[in-house]
Each structure stands twice: as structure tokens, then as C-alpha cells.
TrEMBL record:
Coiled coil: none annotated. GO terms for cellular component: cytoplasm; nuclear membrane; nuclear pore. Residues 146-212 form the Importin N-terminal domain. Keywords: mRNA transport, Nuclear pore complex, Nucleus, Protein transport, Translocation, Transport. It is found in: Nucleus membrane; Nucleus, Nuclear pore complex. It is a peripheral membrane protein. GO terms for molecular function: nuclear export signal receptor activity; small GTPase binding. This is Importin N-terminal domain-containing protein. GO terms for biological process: embryo sac development; mRNA transport; pollen germination; pollen tube growth; protein export from nucleus; ribosomal large subunit export from nucleus; ribosomal small subunit export from nucleus. Pfam families: CRM1_C (PF08767), CRM1_repeat (PF18777), CRM1_repeat_2 (PF18784), CRM1_repeat_3 (PF18787), IBN_N (PF03810), Xpo1 (PF08389). Its main location: nucleus. Belongs to the exportin family.
Amino acid sequence: MQRWRREEGGARGEGGRHQYEEGGARENTVQGEVFGARRNGAGEKGKRTQESRQMEKMILNIARRSRLLIGALSEVFWLDLRLGVMAERLRDLSQPIDVPLLDATVAAFYGTGSKEEEVVAPLRWVIPEICKSLFLIVVLTQRSAADQILRELQNNPDTWLQVVHILQNSQNLNTKFFALQVLENVIKYRWNALPAEQRDGIKNYISDVIVQLSSNETSFRKERLYVNKLNVILVQVLKHEWPARWQSFIPDLVSAAKSSETICENCMAILKLLSEEVFDFSRGEMTQQKIKELKQSLNSEFQLIHELCLYVLSASQRTELIRATLATLHAFLSWIPLGYIFESPLLEILLKFFPMGSYRNLTLQCLTEVAALQFGDFYDAQYVKMYTIFMAQLQTIIPHGTNFAEAYTNGSSEEQCHIRVLESAPANRGGLLMGLEYLIGISYVDDTEVFKVCLDYWNLLVLELFEAHHNLENPTLSASLMGLQTTLMPEMVDGLGSPLLQRRQLYSVPLSKLRTLMICRMAKPEEVLIVEDENGNIVRETMKDIDVLVQYKVLSSLYQNAMIMRETLIYLSHLDHEDTEQQMLKKLNKQLSGEEWSWNNLNTLCWAIGSISGSMMEEQVFLFSMYQYSLDTSLVRHALAEGLLDIGKDNKAVIASNIMYVVGQYPRFLRAHWKFLKTVVNKLFEFMHETHPGVQDMACDTFLKIVQKCKRKFVTTQALRDLVSVVRDIVMRSWAMHDLSTRWADELVEFLLAAELEDLVMGVGVLRDDDASCGPLAPSAIAAPVHEGEIGRLLPLRGFLGGVGENEPFVSELLSSLSITVADLQPHQVHSFYESVGHMIQAEPLPAKRDEYLRRLMDLPNQKWAEIIGQASRSVDVLKDQDVIRTVLNILQTNTSAASSLGTYFFPQISLVFLDMLTVYRMYSELISNSIAEGGPFASKTSFVKLLRSVKRETLKLIETFIDKAEDQSHIGKQFVPPMMDPVLGDYARNLPDARESEVLSLFATIINKYKIVMMEYVPRIFEAVFQCTLEMITKNFEDYPEHRLKFFSLLRAIGTHCFQALIQLSSQQLKLVMDSIIWAFRHTERNIAETGLNLLLELLKNFQVSEFCNQFYRTYFLTIEQEIFAVLTDTFHKPGFKLHVLVLQHLFCLVDSGALTEPLWDTSTVPYPYSNNTMFVRDYTIKLLGSSFPNMSVAEITHFVTGLFESKNDPPNFKNHIRDFLVQSKEFSAQDNKDLYAEEAAAQREQERQRMLSIPGLIAPNELQDEMLDS
């Protein structure tokens, strides 16, 4: 009643407002007339009257708005009370649940109610901002309360008893879904604990509702979503009941399907769900025994399903039923016995449906599944027949010669859904080649998903052809593939080779076209930093600020496509090196002639050339590298001459990126041709002065990549050979030159000779602004190409080249001009450059020369360092200047970069700056502590303190890098560790938590890992300085100080692994602290921390097992460790640690059953029952532990699991599978992504794939190989 009155009052207020406004309007009109008549007589009086009335009007409006606002706020208050009453009524499950009230709650949760509209509607004309805020408050209040109510109902173990009542009385689909979700959880997790009559009741009710709704066409279409959910529930029941307790399910289902076409359509959906649950989604959802049982049952009863499918496809005219049957068949075809496919009319029926648009895509899916089956040659005749008919039908649908890219663009969404063509046997050559032609055409469609499908097929086809070709060259492999036990004789291999060569010949034409396709569509390698943006501008590649997960998925997909394309092109290159070279040279010619000129075509061509570097033979490498290097400059020269191109900085950057990428992919060629290597490096130095975004970064990256593979060349004084004849003979003799016109062949020779004679390449000026005055881009250089006669004029200089060498190694020449080379580089690029030069110096075998090179390399930073230290000795305040701090930081970073490549040979340099560096470290540490003490925690966030901490961190990083990269020489550790004890360790202990650097922990972890037992005497001091204070920082929660966490446990692992005796000497309280910290580590949800803790635990367990304190340690910690490991093992947040959890448990059970423990693990004073041995005790303890943790499992199930642990403890694979089955039975891991439980197998597959790639030249790029490519 009160609410109605408030609403009525609101309405009256609304009406009053309109009346007032009308009256005000009339009044203003009258006043205007009066004031117009009496303007001269009563102006002041009329003005005061008008102001009074305006004031009165404003006061009335404020009062009215206040009443409405108070009324709306009252509604929010009453809404809270009503939601509380609703919750209490719904929680009372002692009587049938109030279904309308549940409907309202569900509607509130999904935001489908209109109550919030009623509350705020009168306010919309008042204050829009307040109206929006109130609306949001009402909606959030309702949704939050409804969510809480529904969660409580879902977690209530008795709610499922109300499911039938809800389904029968609710008209809200969302409410029905909520009820079915509750029922599904009961079926998944508590089914076997329910009485038999309740299980039968659920099973019968679900079946009856499904039949009832699917018997009628109208209800079936109207309630389709509801029926689909009921089907899911039924399949969940089947996973428990069938076949043991519901043997008649398949016959019953087939019988019901024949009674009605709508029932039959739904039966197909149920069968499809069942097949997917058993064969696609069963891993981690069911025990392996249950999966095996269901698969056997489906196979044994498939005869009935097969007959039903054939009957429907032959007799029905109903589109929906036929589509459902085809979809179900598609789910079956990957696992059913082959006789049901090839020894029945199934294939003929499928091909009958292919021309029909409504069934084409589903039919194509089925045929694709058949094509993917492995069945040897037993059904070849049927397969060839299927393919022949399919190709004939395909040509009527898509005539030969169709432009697939255009047809796809103009096609419907249904036609664009699946475009797949199948491979056939060689017996049907015409159809096979026609099919490949279709697929090549489809591959040009500008759609990522379509191209990816085609690319997957091409990769599989080419890989199969390559492996056959590769195995032909390896008789042992050929024999093993044939199942023979002996190696084939040469004449036997020749016999095998004939059909293999014939097969390669059959595929030669389509594979040649495929090479062209791969070149045209080659993806950008990650090394290339220069890209074209959406506006056509040439820019440095940047990462857009978008959602991280979406970004990761997009980049992963692009990277995967690029890898597959590169791999496919490498296989194609191995199958026919000559054709690969021909296709690329044709593309080069078309670029030079302008026939296919575009920056995109130039880029993809260069990327393709670089991608096959490891698969090319030496002569081809020479031609490609030299030709590609000349391509860009020659291309630019002729484009300028013909007016085709305006060379700007953007285009120069593209040329630079292509040059750098290609030459970086051919280190083998660079090592074999010093003059060209030197030319390339000097060109990179030129690019380092170019300020276009990305060019300098790419130049530094390429320089580092080249130096890592060719470093010895730079420290050797090179003698030139008679290179004129070498260049001319190799280039002109190459058969590939036949594809070039005389003009371009002579042009290439001219360029190569010029490069060898006078380093004219250095004058190209590709990225210079002054290219009008020098190099081949100068106007004088744009002239007719040099011909054979002109080349002859250069030949007398052959003796000059043969007799003159270089006076000093290249590294010496480089160091002389170091300051000029790095003048235009940014600090991070200078650091990369120093790392590169460090690799060169590291290759110098003579210690005296090496030290001299190092001195010259570090001369610039050392001069600045000495200047700063000298000033600081006179006035310490110099070190407080922020510019000086930045300079110090840059000097340290430069040293770190050099140390990372020089390793042990960096010793003279670090010895020079070490003590001064520690002095600066100590001073900056005191400044940081004073700043934080004076300014509080906020001071640590200031730019000054951050800069100081950066210097401290870089100091620690420099020392760690040197020690990590240096050889294992104990004198280095003894020389550097003692001076660091107080400045570094003492500072860490004394500092406030916010001022402690995590790098201290990683530094000493590196020291202990490097020098192992030599560091034993320092472990107590390390332990004392960092252990207690770090634990206090990281054990308050799982979030603070994330870097300290991982590095702390890494330090603990280093001590436990290499200085175990130091742990034994700890007191019992200290050891308990260590064990508690390890448990804290593997409880952590951050994967790296948890894995570090588990690895440390496993190593400690093994070390204590062979120590004299074995009994004492395990008596104290065995049961705690077992309990904690089972806790994280059954916690879904710790699934990535599954492998290590299993290893720890296996160690514990093996230990206790081996008799190594000679004292009881239990406390004899508190355990009344006497156990005969530790095995019996641990068995009983584990059963009780798991029984209390998993009340949903019976004692028999848990006892069976524990018995299995002891029986399989010496068989790691079975032990692991036994635990996986337990996790499924415990229901802790059901309906989850369980791939982490199989991470070990996945890692083994990845390693096997890597070994396969290593065996094929080119699949792993030269710069990705772990072993060093030695240069002679």
C-alpha cells in the first residue's frame, strides 16, 4: 500500500510538473503584455516580482526532485530486504522449492527482469547522472544477491532432489538449465554413491522427457536447446551405466529411432555425443580401463548403428535428419572397422550427396575422414573409385580454370566453410593432378584459415615425398620401413628407387607450381623488423597494446604458419634443388624487369631465399648470396633509370632489411668467402648510421648473428686469392645463369668483380642522403651494363689481387674506428655491438693479443669510468648527480654485454673495475636506505631511488654474468667472493625489505652452482645473511616480492644440490625452517617457484636417503611430505607439477618398501596399534588420509588405489597412469583441461620432433643450432 502511494505521488508530481510549466508559460505571456504596457511606470517593481517567482519555482523543483530521489533510494532498500526474504525461502529445501521465485532469481542473475526499470523510471527527467548510478546500483545489487543464492543452491547436496519438480513447473529455459547443471554435477561426482532406485529414477526420467519432446516436430524445434542439454545429461549417465548396467541401450536407441523421424534425428545427436565423449574427450575424464571398455562396446554394437545410418541415408527425404546422420557418421568414421566403410554401400551413398548444396560440406567432412585413414593397399580399388567419382563431381561444381580467390570472395558463407581436396593413389593420375591443380588454385585465396588448411595438406604431402626420397638414399631406413631385419643391397635399392623416382616425376609439375606459391606467400621471419603498416608506410614493427591473450594467440598462429611454410619450402628444395633455384631466379628476373614489381613481392622473395639457407648446396649458396646482395642495388639502379621508382628513406629501409636478413641466413657461405663477409659487415656498419626506425636494431642483430658463426675470421689476417677468375668461373658456369638475359648475367659479374676489386659495394650509398655523388646510384653509374669485353679489361688485375693481402686482422681495424662506428647508436644497440666484438676477441688464441684487443674495446667506457671515479675521490657528491648515475649505469651495462661473450677472458677488465664498483655499490646502497628511512615506503618509488637501484642491480648482474660465463676455475671464485661478503651480503641483511635486491640471491646461487663444494665454507654466512630475512618477506602471502621468491628457492636448491653437508650441519630448528620453506614453495601457484621447490625436495630426499641421518630425517618429515604432496597433487591449481609430484611419491613408496628405513616412522607412544613394518604403517596411514579427504570415494576404491601404488612403484609409467586414474575417480580433475597431466609425454614428443628436424639440413636455421659452427 505504501509503495502504491509513493508511485501515485510520483505520478501526481509528474502531472503537477506539467501543469506548473503550463501555468508558468501563460503567466510569462501575461506578464510580458503587462510589462510592455507599463514599462515606464513600474519596471523595478516588476523585476523584483519576476525574480521572486523564479526563486519560488526553483525551490519547488528541488523539493520535488528530492522526494523522487528519496523514494528511489527507499526502493533500493526494500529491494535488499525482499532479496533476503527470497534467499531464505529458496534455501529451505524441506518442502518443494518455490519455482516462480527461482525463476525470478535466475532472471535477476541474467539481467532479464524489469524491476530496476520501475525503480528508476520516475527519475529520468530529474538528474540523468544520478539515474544512471541508481540503475547500476539496482542491477548490481540484484545480480550479486541472485548469484549468491544460486551458488548456495548449487553447492547444497540436497538441491538435486528438487530437479524434477523444477523441470516440470518452470517455463524459464535458464532455470531449467540451472537445474540440469545441478543434476549433471551429481551424475559426474556422486553417481555411484546414490541408491540404485534413485539412479534408475534419474535415468528413466531423462529418457522419458527426451522421447516426449522429440516425438513431436513442433516441440522438438521449439525446445531444441533444452533437448540438447538433456542429451548431454543422458550421455553422462551412460558413461557410468553402459554397458554393465544398461546393456540394452544401443538396441533400445535404434528401436526408438525407427519410430519417428524427429526421434531418429535426436538419436543421431546422442550417438554423436557418445562417440565424442569416448574417443575425443575421454583423456583425463575417465579411467583408462573404462575408456577401453566403452570403446570395445561401441565397436561390438556398431553393426546396429551402421544399419540405422544406411537406412536413413537411403530412405529419408528429410533434410534435417540427413544432415544429423552425416554429422554423426563424421564422428564415427575415424574409429569404426574399415569393413563398414569399404565393404558396404556407404561411400556410394556419401558421393550421391556431395553434389547437393545442403549436404556438400558435411559429406566433404566425411570423405576427408575416409581419406585420412591408414589402411595399407587392401582397399586401393575402392579408394581410387571414390576419388575418381569425387573429382568428376567436383569439376561439375567448380569448372577447371576457375579463379578460386575471386570465387571465394564472391561465394556464400556456406560455400566458404570447407574447401578441402583429397590426395589419391598414383593409379588415378589424371584425377590426382587435377585435384592438385584445384588445391593450388585454392591456396591463392586471400583467407588465413583457408590457406592454413591448404598449407597443412601441402606440408604432409611434401614431407611424405621427401621422406621417401631421403630413405632411398639410406638403405637401412628403407629396409626398416619395409619391415626387413637386414640392410638392403644396392641392387635392391635400385629396384625400389624406380617407382619412387616415377612418383617424384609424377608430382614434378604441381610441386614446381607449389614452389612458386610458397615464394609468393612466404611469411615474414621474426628477424625482420621493418614492416609495411596498414597505411602503406614502412615502419619498425611494434606490438599493439591489445589484450595479451588475444595477442599471444594471434602471434602464435602467425608464427606457426611461418614455420610450416618455411619447413614446406625446405622439403621442396631438397626434392629438387635445381627447380627451386629456377623458380627463385625467375622471380628475381620479374622483379628486375618490373613485370611483377612491388615491395611485397620483393619482401616475400627475399624471405623465401633466406628461409632455405640450410638446404642449399655450396654453389647455389654462392650464387644466391652474391646475387641477392646485388639484387637490391641493381634493382634500384634500373628502376631509377627507367623512372619506375622514387628512392626514399622508407624504400631504402626495405632494401636494407632484405640485405641484412638474407646475408644473416648464410653463415656457411660467409665463412668460405672472406672478402664478401668483410663487405657485408662494412655494409652493416653503414646501416648503423641510418636513423630510420628499425634499421639500426636489425643491423646490430644481424652483426651479432654473423659474428657468432664466423668469429674466427675476424681475428685472422686474411690473404686474398685469385678471386677474379673464381668469381667469373663460378657465376658464368652455373646453369642457373641460363635463365638470365645476357644483360643481367654480365651485370651480376660486373657487380661481383667490382666488389672484389675495390669494395665498390661500400659506395652504393643505399641509405645515404649524398648518393648523388658516389656509388652505383650516382648519375654516372646509371649507364649501359658492362659486357664480356669490358670485363676482360679487368682481368690483368688478377695478379694484383693474388699478391696482395691484408696487413692486420679485421678486429684490429674495427677497434681503430670503434668510436665512429657506434657514434649514432642508442645505448642498447651499443651494448649489442660490444657483445658482438666480444665474440670476436674471445676467438683470438693468443693471450697477449686477446688482452690487447680487450683493452682497446673497453678503452672508451674505461676512460669515462676513471674520470667519474677520479671526481668522486675529490667529492663524493658527484656520484649523486642523476646524469652521472645514468652514465655509471651505461658503463656497467656495456661491461655486462662484453662479459657475456668473452667469459673467462673478461677477467682483466673486471679485475680493473671490481673494487671501485663495490665501493659505488656500498655508497648507493646507503643512499637508498637513507632515502627510504626518511621518506618512508613511497621513497622507493621515486625516480632517484629507482636509478640508484638500477646501478646496484647492474653491478650484481655484471658479476653474475662473468662468473656464469667464465670457465670453472676455483681461483676466480676465491678471489671475487670474499670481497663481496659485507658490501653485498651484509648490505642485503641490513637493508629494509623494499631495498633488498633479488639479484643478490641469484648471484650467490650462480656462484654455488659454478664452484660447488669449494663454496662450502661460505654457505653458513650466506644462510645467515639471506635466509631468515627473505622468508619473512615472502611468507606473508603469495604475491609480494615475486622476484625474491623464485631466486630464493633457486639459491636453496643450489645449496641443497652442491653443498648438502652444510644443510646437515644446521640445527633442527633451522632444518625445519628449510623444509617449511620448501613446502611453501611447492604450494605456490606460480609454476616456476613450485617446480623449483619440488626439484629441491626431490634432491634432498635422495641425499638424505644415503646419509647417516636417513632414519632421523624421514621419521620427522616423511608423513608431512606425503600429506603435502597429495594435497597439491589433487589440487587443480598445481597440475603443471604432476610429473614431479609423481616422482616424489614414487621415491617415498620405493623407500619405505625397500627396507632402507630401519626405525619405525610412527610414534610408538601415541600409535596404539603395533605395525609389523613401515610398509604396513604407510599403507594404513595413506588409506586413512585419502579416505578423510575424499568422502565421495569408497574404502574399497581407496584401498585398491593404495595397493596399486605399492605394486607399481618400480614401474614409472604404470605408477603414473595409476595416479591419473585416481585423479579421475576422485572427481577432482573432471571437466578440466588435463593436458598438464600428460606434459611429460608431450615433452618427449617435442624432443623427438626436434631430433627429426636436426637430421634434415635446413629445417633448423643455422643461427638456431646449439653447436658452434666452426670456421677454419
